[in-house]
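Task: complex structure prediction.
Instruction: return structure tokens for all chains below.
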Amino acid sequence: MSRVVKRTGKGIGVAPGTLIHVGNKINENVHMTMFEYSEESFQEKTLYQVEEAFALKENPTVKWINVDAIDKVEIIEKIGNEFKLHPLMLEDILNTAQRPKFDDYDDYLYIVLKMLYYNEKSNEITSEQVSFVLVPNYVFSLQEFEGDVFENVRERLRSGKRNIRKTGPDYLVYALIDAIVDSYFAVIEKIADKIDNLEAELIDKPDKDVLKDIHSLKREIIFLRNSIWPLREVINSLIRSDSPLIDENIVLYLRDVYDHTIQIIDTIEIYREILANMQETYISSLSNRTNEIMKILTIFSAIFIPLTFLAGVYGMNFRYLPELEWRIGYGLFWIISIAVAFFMLRYFRKKKWL
Amino acid sequence: MSRVVKRTGKGIGVAPGTLIHVGNKINENVHMTMFEYSEESFQEKTLYQVEEAFALKENPTVKWINVDAIDKVEIIEKIGNEFKLHPLMLEDILNTAQRPKFDDYDDYLYIVLKMLYYNEKSNEITSEQVSFVLVPNYVFSLQEFEGDVFENVRERLRSGKRNIRKTGPDYLVYALIDAIVDSYFAVIEKIADKIDNLEAELIDKPDKDVLKDIHSLKREIIFLRNSIWPLREVINSLIRSDSPLIDENIVLYLRDVYDHTIQIIDTIEIYREILANMQETYISSLSNRTNEIMKILTIFSAIFIPLTFLAGVYGMNFRYLPELEWRIGYGLFWIISIAVAFFMLRYFRKKKWL
Amino acid sequence: MSRVVKRTGKGIGVAPGTLIHVGNKINENVHMTMFEYSEESFQEKTLYQVEEAFALKENPTVKWINVDAIDKVEIIEKIGNEFKLHPLMLEDILNTAQRPKFDDYDDYLYIVLKMLYYNEKSNEITSEQVSFVLVPNYVFSLQEFEGDVFENVRERLRSGKRNIRKTGPDYLVYALIDAIVDSYFAVIEKIADKIDNLEAELIDKPDKDVLKDIHSLKREIIFLRNSIWPLREVINSLIRSDSPLIDENIVLYLRDVYDHTIQIIDTIEIYREILANMQETYISSLSNRTNEIMKILTIFSAIFIPLTFLAGVYGMNFRYLPELEWRIGYGLFWIISIAVAFFMLRYFRKKKWL
Amino acid sequence: MSRVVKRTGKGIGVAPGTLIHVGNKINENVHMTMFEYSEESFQEKTLYQVEEAFALKENPTVKWINVDAIDKVEIIEKIGNEFKLHPLMLEDILNTAQRPKFDDYDDYLYIVLKMLYYNEKSNEITSEQVSFVLVPNYVFSLQEFEGDVFENVRERLRSGKRNIRKTGPDYLVYALIDAIVDSYFAVIEKIADKIDNLEAELIDKPDKDVLKDIHSLKREIIFLRNSIWPLREVINSLIRSDSPLIDENIVLYLRDVYDHTIQIIDTIEIYREILANMQETYISSLSNRTNEIMKILTIFSAIFIPLTFLAGVYGMNFRYLPELEWRIGYGLFWIISIAVAFFMLRYFRKKKWL
Amino acid sequence: MSRVVKRTGKGIGVAPGTLIHVGNKINENVHMTMFEYSEESFQEKTLYQVEEAFALKENPTVKWINVDAIDKVEIIEKIGNEFKLHPLMLEDILNTAQRPKFDDYDDYLYIVLKMLYYNEKSNEITSEQVSFVLVPNYVFSLQEFEGDVFENVRERLRSGKRNIRKTGPDYLVYALIDAIVDSYFAVIEKIADKIDNLEAELIDKPDKDVLKDIHSLKREIIFLRNSIWPLREVINSLIRSDSPLIDENIVLYLRDVYDHTIQIIDTIEIYREILANMQETYISSLSNRTNEIMKILTIFSAIFIPLTFLAGVYGMNFRYLPELEWRIGYGLFWIISIAVAFFMLRYFRKKKWL
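Output:
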């Protein structure tokens, strides 16, 4: 639950732009890597000081600096000072409860997105915030933890295949966003599998575990929807943006990502409906079973309660109880009993209970 | 379920435009046919090499090439190379989990739609993706499997009736889309029949099978809606498109298809509501039956439980139990029993349980 | 149900504009009437050949031709040929599963609407499609069956009161639409009455019939809403149309019809909500009754089951069962029994079950 | 119910503009009052003939004529003739089932609203239609019955306080609308009180009366919403109107009324949600109680049914039933009985039923 | 409940602009403070007469006057007279049932918002209205009670850190709004905690208290949503406002607040959905338990009722009852009993009840 709501990182009324990391301190060792490339050159190195990257400012190459831990406030501050970034934007980077958004600050662009993983251990979706800052010739990607979905992009840069090195930083940003959106499909597939498994048990064995699973899947879907929904608007703003930092050729690619985003949102909506449908079917299914149980109870009771009464009658000790003396008394008793049971059963069959 | 979500065909972060077929390999033998026609001429032939079609590039005739299997990547690549199609578009053709859409690439148009069949065997709706590429003088239609809903269009081309041969490739595209939209009506009729059958049993015999049917019909409707809904936007974009590839005369025809699409969407919405209504009625109906059953159980219990107690009392073996000695004891017992039963029944009648 | 979905009249992929009547053949004898009028003249006659009407083409009078059966394809074809109407429009006239719509073909206007009647016999709403074609000086109204809601308009034409004869064909179209919209109120009133009757039984006697009625009323409302909802857009398009065939003075009258349409749609929405409310109350009401029944069962059981056990104990035949020998045994038994019953009743009263 | 839907006052197809009063004839004696005022003068008089007001046409004073009964068709006709009002508008005045609306007829404005009262006797909201016609220097307010919410406005006119006499007829219209909107708050407060009272009983004593109250409150809210919702649009059109009859200074006041309207609509929406919430809680609450009742029944049954069986066993008359001869038989019976009861109770406690 | 609806403070039809405080009189001693600051100077003082602030009108410093009690009508009147504020605005300040809104009166701006606190004692959210009036060089903040969320802003003014003193009154208004929006996060966190606690008990122990908590949380959410939702529009109007009183530099900050507002609204919607989900799960959970209980009752009944009947049979006193004489009678009875019980249990196991 706590992942849903997080305060925006500062005490009430604290001056905006005060850089405080909001979130749990996780990794002691910040991990920074830099890819520097152009059509001709390519270099990959680990950075120990972010200033190393600034030194290359005059180079016309594309520089992608990936920072694995955004809780090191000083790195963010250094980048901010170097490129004269707005304090509110720096605050946004540090606040990991950000809503996906795109801000165009004229001289640089800021994009914040959520990476989603399916955590096999806790059986839950985990979310990691990534901020992209696009400064001329530089792309900064700032993540919460180590580990990401960019490995394929790195491979393409290393191999130089499919001309990615010929393109500018805007294409790189596209490629990174594309990788993130692709990773959503994996998460949704996981949920699809779970729903498929539930479906089988839903009508035939509607027990407490099924209910628990429906309940938690619905929460996962609510969480997912909230993370992905704003993406649509983000990518749309990117497409409609007239920033000189984004080349017109890129728009076609962004539109492709946009289509994928719509498809993901559609799919989430479908699962929401399917789960709502399952919940309703679950309740109907339970009512159905209760109904079945009640029928059995009622059939047993309606047959045996009158008979037990009759047996009770002839177990009475009245001195003058003429039937008891009859020779055919006991036989008659059984005849009556069987007749009662027979007519009861017929009655229930007529009512379609049997 | 798995039909709802499919990954967009590539590993996370793989370069866009990498042509990988996403889907199951189905048919070994690609089946390609070409219709070449103009006002004067008509020719129908099976193609073994897609290059055969390119040879006719200079002819002013309309050429419709239908490819029955989109998993042969090399055919798509050849077409792409010949007409300089954008790699992202080729990727879209191969990805069978595409959302219906229309892309205007200036020199050519790309339309992707879903054909829907009612599979009588599995009792389910199956969906097949069709891509249309409209290049000057060429219409490519790329399907997933053999078998389609275009037979009538082919007949009209062969017979040359109703002047279809006098029109250009844009009219052909319209005719193919129209055939697809018409096929949706058949699918909806199938669902309508099923709902009609359910309706009869709903209130009088609300058992588990009814529930199962409602549940699966609701899923079918969710699936249908998702497939057809984007169509509206697709055809609308086509109508509003100012592409030179689409003649103004065609717009009137497209508007007609648009009206049909709206009608289909309306109908799906109605069935959604009707099914929601049926689910509610199902639950109400079950509650009603449980209520009936409870009444019977309670009436039996309320009458016989006190009487059984009374019989139990006079079955006790107390040495001093004066009533047992009375001459009228047994008669009195019956009188009391019948009186109790009578007043109970009157009470229940007053409560309108009988 | 079958009234909700009908195929659009042709085999899949059949050429558009092929005139095939979609619907059941009903009346053998087409009934055609013509009203010809101007400020000075008035004439009403039965037509046997539609060509009789064409002969008056040069007259500046208004000519209203009403055709009672649209399944006579040749009449539609003749009108189409005479006035050069678009084949798609002719197809629409013949297809009785049309959605209400307004098409402006520059030289003529096409409006299709639904007349709704309350069928007292089948206790259902029936729907009849009417198409209006407005050609200069001509109004064609094409219905499915004999019988309509235009009798008042005819009376006004005959009597010449309220200056209707002074106005043009556009006012006539307005008057006919107005008559149709007015007829919706009658249908809604019928539904209102039914809902009123249900309301009375809802809480006090929530039985199966009430459920059936709610269920079918909800379906009626879904059907109604679907028929009337598009009307809003139709009349709005008429108002905003800049066709020379519609005089500006008519707009004020059309706006009045528009207001009525909105009022009808509002009312339908209200009944939808009221019915949803009734369904919920029905379920609550049933739960309430089941609860009541359970209480009675439980009270009886909780009092008599322990007492029956006690009676059973003293009916046992143990040789050594000391209480049986006590003089006060039987009296004591009754005292205990009454005490148990008394405390049980007090307990249930405390729990507010009594 | 019948208050929701009323036919728009004429037979189907009757000529529009035919003046027929739609509603029940209520008051025999029409009551007409006129307030005539300017900055210097003030006069209040009862009118017996509406023509008395027309005589003052040349006076630059503001004249407010309030007519208490709109079923006197001739008064409406006279006003219509005098000021050349459109017949459709006169028809609207007479039709008391009008939807709140604002029509700008250039030379005069027409506004129709609903006054709502809480009828203490029938415990229901009653609705009365008021039409305002704003002609230069004249304001006509036409009500259904005697009695309204304008008493405060009259007082302000009489006392001349707060400069109301210095303002024109447009301010008067504003003041009257404001009085109507204010009166809605009183109605909503009434509903709020009822909901508060229900809340207390909802969870602790969810009986049939609570259900009835929720049901009828929901209907009241549906009715209210329908009456007030269009008001928003009405006042908005007034604000955006560029009619010379409405001074720019008045817009600020109208905006204030608009804010109040939004607040009322918000509040109604909140109560709708609260009532939906209450209905759900009611059902949950009932299920909860049924569950409780079932537990008690089951506990009693599960303990005593096996014991009764055991007592029955030793009440059998088999000749050879060895336990009956045992000295400790009876004691053993009790020990077993108490043990069974004890373990049963422990089992139920473990299941958290106790 | 009463917090939801309050009349807008005046009798029906009372002249607008009549200053009457609507609300409960709370604090006898109005508490007024003034912060006067510029880049160089800073002064904080308590005001006893609001006129003291007016004296500084010519100073170019920013003056923030905070009034803790808006029920002192005369203070509002004095401010109104001094700055020529519109009477309708003054009325709005006094009416504590205002909807959050922003009014641009050209020469001054009026903003009204809700501060929300979580009241630990009553375990409820309380709401306090704050009005901001922005006059050149002056910011008036008018609260209902003492105590607010502005302490941090005051600290920053006192310390002069982060350049707040260098900015104008528009920045101060931003800072105050930001502090209010930040305080909403605290309220939402409180609700998140409560929901987390409920979640644990929901499925395993769905008792009456859980229901009560869900019910009241849903009401809190409805209340919250209503208070916060209009904020979005308010801040958006501020951003789009072209008032000279708001500097362009401030827009970036306001956009930041806007983002926070959207995030809060998103979160509230999520909790609404989660609570709806919980309510559904609660009902399902209850049905599940009732089902379990019924199973136990039915198993007990179905096993013992037939056996009790059998025991009753052999407790009958018929003179001729042959089985009673059999040597193996009693043994046979037990064999039959155990067999019946065994088959019953197997039947129930087959039905998956065990």
